[in-house]
Design goal:
- The complex is a heterodimer of chains A (about 90) and B (about 200).
- Chain A has helices spanning about 5-15, 20-35, 40-60, 65, 75-85.
- Chain A has about 90 residues and is mostly helical.
- In chain A, helix 2 packs across helix 3.
- Chain B is built from nine helices and no strands.
- The chains are: A mainly alpha (about 90), B mainly alpha (about 200).
- Chains A and B meet through helix 1, helix 3, helix 4 and helix 5 of A and helix 1, helix 2, helix 6 and helix 9 of B.
Amino acid sequence: MFTCKQVSNALSKEDYEKMPPVRRFFLRLHVKLCVFCGKYNRQVMDSQDMCRCYKKHEITNEETFVHYRPQMEPLKKDQLKELIASQSK
Amino acid sequence: MPDKPEPKVPVTPPEQWVDQYGDYLYGFAMSRLRNPDAANDCVQDTFLAGIKALERFDGSRDIKFWLRGIMRNKIVDQIRKSIKENKVDIEAEDEALLESFWFKYSGIATTNPDPWQFNPRKSYDNGEFWVVFEKCIAQGKDPAREAFVLRVLEDQTTEEVCKAMDITPNYLWVLLHRAREQLKILLESSWTGKDVK
């Protein structure tokens, strides 16, 4: 069984979903039962879930962001095109 | 030497990269860097590195995603550069947290964090939520935001982030705690109410 400090250390170093199954099981068990670190580390795990979903959404649903994200200025694009043309000759 | 296998996807010539992928990569860089000059540099460095490495492109995936892979490294480089220019100092509040009993004993900032005002999981299928999420990350304060981008969004290891930011692993944990706190507050104020059904 983990101690609170070990759970926090583990969560600070890696996404709990990427942990080996047995380690993940005991970590989740600790977080579920612990009256000291349970609430806090549950939120850390929720945050990891959220960021994982965001990164997945970013790849699979890129059209979501197309209209919101800023675009390159035309002048910068022209300068870059010239640079690329000179580099790829 | 064996011949290079035919790429499975068509390879866009570099002369067309700016028109085809410029906006996409710039938007991606802005979502991490929020600085137009740094984002422009990042796109430029990505394309130049892409031209140099084009021979090694195996064509197994769209070149856009290959370029984005290169860009991830450039984003990390840009953040490192920004951190070098603005050295990270520990704030008094963070120092107190690092010295607190709960942090030393269990590695947590508090035993009783405020609960979420809404259930974010219910919004994961809603594209608009992720746009708001991205805006909230961009509104975060540095250096917590930079630590969050490097560690969480760009999957750098704790050691790599600590080296780049010249901080201890404990302080990185505090910065990530601050970033999560900021994100929660911003999401609650930006999203709560939109999702009420």
